[in-house]
Amino acid sequence: MSSINPRAVQIEAEVVSNKKVGAYHHMVFSVEGMAASARPGNFVAISVGGESTGLVLRRAFAIYRATDKSLPAGSNGLIELVIAPHGQGSTWLASRQVHEKVNMVGPLGTSFGIPTEPVRALLVGGGYGSAPLFGLAELLKSRGCRVDMVLGASSAGKIYAPLEGKRSVSSMTITTDDGSAGLQGRVSDALPQLIEENESEIIYSCGPMAMLQAIQAIADKYNLLHQASVEESMACGIGVCMTCVVPLRGSDGVVRMSRTCIDGPVMDGSNVIWDSQRRIPEGTWGA
Amino acid sequence: MFDFSTKLSSSTLSNPILTASGCAGSGKELSQFFPLTELGAIVTKSIMLKPRSGRATPRMAETPSGMLNSIGLQGPGIDLFLENDIAWLQEAGVKIIVSIAGETVDDYAALARRVRSLPNVVGLEVNISCPNVENRGMVFSCQPDTARAAIENVRRNVGNDLPIIAKLSPDVTDISLIAREVVSAGADGLALINTVLGMVIDVNTMRPKLAQKTGGLSGPAIRPIAVRAIYQVHAALPKIPIIGMGGVASGKDALELVLAGASAISVGTATFGNPTAVIKVKEELKSLLVERGFEKFSDAVGFAHRAESN
Prior knowledge:
Chain A is of the alpha/beta class. Chain A is about 15% helix and about 35% strand. In chain A, about 50% of the residues are buried.
C-alpha cells in the first residue's frame, strides 16, 4: 500500500510576504518545522475562501522554495509558493495580506529523485510549473550536477524565472507560443537540440499533462530518464478522495489508477500511461 | 459527565462521529492527523468482490458549497481489502463499519459472508445507492423490490449480532417508502443520505466536465436534503437508528441532523477540505449539546420531532 508523506502536518501558516511578479504572486509563509521536512517536488494543500466560503476543497501548490537553514536561532522555517490567480481559490489566496494566516497541510507527495552521482540534468517547466524546479536546481548543483533549464509559456508575462532562481543554472532557455520572449514555439521544440548540446542524462519536468507527454516522447527517443511532476485535479491532497488518479505502471508491471497526491506528483514518466484523460487504458487493474 | 455514547442496534459506540464511506481512504492516511480511536467508528470505502479501476478522469468538479465526484467505486476487491485495509484498522484498534457494494444481489450475499464475523467490525453498511455506476439500474435503492432483494440477501447471511445498515439514495420520490421496505427486509439501521446525482457542463469546452458526465453531489449544498430525508424517515420509523450524513462540516451542522433523527453522524466531503474535520465536528457537537442542557447524546436524537407544546 502506498502511504501519505510521513512528514505531513497541518498548521496555521502566517503570510510573511506577498509580491506580484508578472502574472503571478510570490508568497512567503512562516511554517515552523514544515520547511525542514520539505523536498523539491513536494507540495502543500491550503484551505481557501475563509470562514463563510462556499469553496469546500483545498488547493494544491508545488513548493517553490523551503528555507530552514542559515536562519537566526528561534526563527521559523519559510515556505515560498508561486500562485497563479486564475480561479476563485487562488485569487483569494493571492490577495492575503502579510500577517494573515492560512490553514496549510504539507509537505505532501513524492519528491524529485536525486542521483547519487553527479549527472547532467535538464529541467523543463511550463508556466508556473517552473516553481519547484529552482529548489531542485539548487539541490542538484550542490551535488555537483550540471543543470540546464528550459521554461515555456504562452507569452513572456507567464514565464516565472526570478533572478535568484537562475544562480544554480548553467544555461536558461525560454520559449513562448507567441514569440514575445525567447524562442517562438513550445518547450518540446527546443528539447532535442538542448539535449544534444548539453549531453543531458536526465530530464526533470513540471507543467501541463500535454507538455509532459510530449517530453516523455523525446525522453524515449533519446533513452533518457524522465521524472515528471504531473497535474491532475485534486480535492483533498492527502489520499482520501481518489479523484486525482492517473494510470501508472507499478514495479510489478501492473497498471493501476494511482493517486497523484501520494504516488506523485513526481512520477517516473516512463511508467505513466499518458493521454488517458476521459478513458481507462485497456488492461488497467480492475478495469 | 456528558454521555456521548450511541447505539446502532446491537452495537454501542463511544461517540456518534464517524467517517463517511469513500471519504477516509483506507483510514491510514487520516491517522497521520489524529488517532482514529477518536472516532465512534470508521466507515470504510464500499468494497466490491473484485478489484475495480473506477471511472476515467476528470472525476471531480467543485460546485458552489459542494463537489461532484464520479470515482466509480475504485478499490482492491474484497481479498486484498481484508488482507491490507481491515488488518491495519484492526491493529489500530478502531471500530469498523465495513461498507459493501455489489453488482448483483448475489454479490451482496457473498460479501456479507466475508465480513460477518471479523474482530472490531461493529456494523455492515450495505451501499445500495452509489450513483456512479455504468447502469443506473444498479442503484438498488431506487426501487423498492431491488432494495428489498439486496437487503434480504445480506440478512440471510448475517447473524443478529452484526447490525445491517442500508445506505439509501435521496434520488427517489418517497424515501420513507424505501426505508420501510429495507427495514422489513431485515435492515437494522439506515445510512442517509448518499450523494445526489448531478452534472456540471464546462462552458468553454461546452461538454460535461466529468468524463462519465454525471457524478454524485456532496458537501454543504446537499445538507438540507439530508435533514429533510432524515426527518421524514425518523418520523416514519422512530425506532430505527439512522447514520446521518450530507454536508456536515461543523458541530452545528451535525446537531441539525441529530435533531432530525440521526443517532450517528458521518463526516465526508468536509474531510477533503480539512483532514481534522471529524475532530472539529465531534468537539463542537459535544459543546453545543452541553450548552443546550442535554446530559446524554441520545436525548437529542430526533428532538426536533417533539410536540409543539413541549
